[in-house]
Amino acid sequence: MRISEFRNDRARQRFLAAYEQTLAELWPGPRTAIDLPTSFGTTRVYRTGQQDGAPVVLLPGSGGNALMWHGYVELLARHRPVLAVDTVGEPGASVQSAPIADGRDGAAWLDEVLTGLDATDAHLVGCSYGGWLALCHEIHHPGRTASLTLLDPAGFSGFGPRFYAWLIAGALASAAPRPLRPGLARLIGNSAILETRLMGLMRASTGFRRALPVPPVFSDQDLDRLRVPALFLLGARSAMHDSHAVAERLGRLVPAARVAVVPGAGHALTSDRPDVVADHLLEAIGA
Among 39, 20, 70, which residue's Cα sits nearest to residue 270? Predict the structure, then answer.
């Protein structure tokens, strides 16, 4: 099996230069960078916030890294230690060395990260692919975390034409002249394209070859194994799945979970409705 890596050294250097510049421009306040060895590669984690208490662990979506949380770090850091992760296999400062074949491998990687950070009773916050990883971790390593907050997580439908059309439209719109982007963002339902610096970083990652598993749909038996407090935030206009159908399924199979379908938001929930996401995050971590 392949691993995720840059096409060549030139592509890697180009991306890392853009990454370091974007990190310097966007990250609020002080941070400590930790390079943590795991069985699947070296994982970059940024630590900030309070020294004591159960940490908040932030997992980005597909194609992203810890920088996608830049607008939330300062708020969360007032209340908890914050650990923002560059997922192994995604374009960032982590370096993959062994394949991740499925959700069990992804859960094993995350468990090694949490163990290496001594992050007991952590509040896991995952967006899209990161939400899928957080759920896989709870399924395969139950009882290791305090709570899950999952923002439009993958794993509740296949990836159909609507989702791929949304991705392609977002990529094209992000390259449009800046005055046109707000209108295009509303048209396609993707406010992430207005994150100019992050879009620039994404363009710099075109030399990165991603080789991570496509999330399968969670079975009823998988969801029945959820025991920790879990909050699902779903974008009403999500291009990934039918959010109301997902909410109905979760209500039937995981009655203890809290589920909210957020009006006016799509799959890019963190940028579509940052006010709603921030309120729910603070409540979920007991701030």
Answer: 70
